[in-house]
Structures are given as C-alpha cells and as structure tokens.
Amino acid sequence: MLHSKTLLIEEYLKTQHKDIIQLLCLTLGKNRAWLFANDDYQLDKNETRTLNALIKKRKQGVPFAYLSGNKGFYHLNFKVTPDTLIPRPETELLVDIALDLFAEKPCRLLDLGTGSGIIATTLADKNPHWEVWATDYFESAIKVAKQNATRAINFRQGTWFDAVPNQCFDLIISNPPYIEENDPCLDSLRHEPINALVSGKDGLDDIRLIIKQAPRHLNKKGYLLLEHGYNQQSRVVSLLRKKFIHIQTFQDYNSNDRAVLAQLQHK
C-alpha cells in the first residue's frame, strides 16, 4: 500500500516494502545511518511523491540498480541503465582470473560484449599499463561503458569479432549471453536486455561462435576466458578441446561452475 499523506521515516521503516531502506536513502540523498538517527523526520510532499513512485516500480520488479542508476562491482561503482545488464558478483571471478594470469606482466586485452564496461574498466583501472579493448553490438551499451571508463580504453561497436578486424590479443574475455530460450529464470530478468541474456535453444550459440573465431584473434599462446551457465561447463570444455589446451575450470563464490580459461594450441 502506498501512502498519499506524508509519513515519518520510522513509519516507512515498519512497512514491508521491498528495499525500503535503500529507497528512502535514494529519495532523501542520505545514508542508512542518517535514516536511523533521524527516524522522526517527516517527508514532505515532493519526497513522498518520489518515494511512492520508486516503491511502485520496485513492486513491479524493476531492479533497484535501475532505480538508483548505479551498481558496485569489484572496487568501482558503475552507471547502469536498462540498456545494459546489471553487474553481478559472479562476474568478478573473471577479473580475479585475469589478474592472477598476467599479474604484473603487460597484456593486450579484449573484452567481448562489454555491456556497461565492468570487466574492461576494472582491469584497465587495476592495470594502467595494459592495452584494453572493449566491444559491444549495441551503441547504447558502448555509450554507457564509455561513461564508466576511468582510463583509456579502445571501444568498438560491432558483432563480436567483426568489431576488431585484423586485431590480435593476449587475452580475450567474454561474459556472453548464455541462457537458454524459454528458461523459467527469464521471468525474473524481464527488465534486463534480453539480447544480453539469451543465446539459442541450449544457451551456447554465442559461446560456440566465440570459441570458433577466437583463434584468429589470439596471439601465440594467447588465452580465452569465458563465463558460462552453472550447467554448461562440460559442454564448453568440449568445444574448446579442438583448438585449445591447458583448459582450466572455475567455480564462482557460490560454488557453481562459472568460468573456463583455455590457452590457444600453437602448432
């Protein structure tokens, strides 16, 4: 139930509205500590109107990150819009793997399907000496990613490797679409861009294409690092075996199979 009259903060805190604390913080421009220290504060009419609109959208399932316009990832805060996926903690695993793989060594990196730019921006920020490239099919996503960049990144628009013709890299990273068509989980993701989520009947259409085309864009002994669905790891490994060696698999922080790293086989 939304309230048309103005209420005290403490009265809102007693409601069952989802994320009410965060919504109050967003409405008032204050932090959680301020809310509890000033729970006798009465919202004015404009604040009440703003809060009610946010509560309504949240009840409709709009993710909080789209309401606030930002989401934390690794050590940075990123602008997000409905044109991009919301950053998820599971994807931080890719950053950890890349950092461990190259440590202090130089790296020419490609982030395929960058979205809001979380992987490319995080790694470029952590490693200013790396040469970082990032691509996305959608101009709207590239626009958001450019706004998130903290260092120089070579952004290119286009379909997968079509965006970087004749370019080769030491490491190619991608968190591509990998959800199956008609997967029941899509209902809970209905506010996020479907093209960044779904990839064919088995969810592997884009991963197949990336694995097939990556060897032409990797330097000698270069690496390919992919995020995938919790039930896809064995199939992804099988796809990699034709052209890649030293295949390593990784679980995310919830102990779900989540990523595969492979080195290009050099004849």
Notable features of this structure?
7-stranded mixed β-sheet, 21% strand, 267 residues, 33% helix, alpha/beta
Write a brief caption for the model.
With 267 residues, the chain is of the alpha/beta class. The protein is 33% helix and 21% strand.
Structure description:
There is one protein chain. This protein is of the alpha/beta class and 267 residues long. It folds into two domains: 9-60, no CATH class; 70-264, 3-Layer(aba) Sandwich (Rossmann fold). The chain is built from ten helices and nine strands. The strands form two sheets. The chain has a seven-stranded mixed beta sheet with strand order 5-4-3-6-7-9-8, with helices on both faces. Strands 1-2 form a two-stranded antiparallel sheet. Helix 8 (139-148) links the parallel strand 4 (131-136) and strand 5. Helix 2 (20-28) packs antiparallel against helix 4 (45-59). It is elongated.
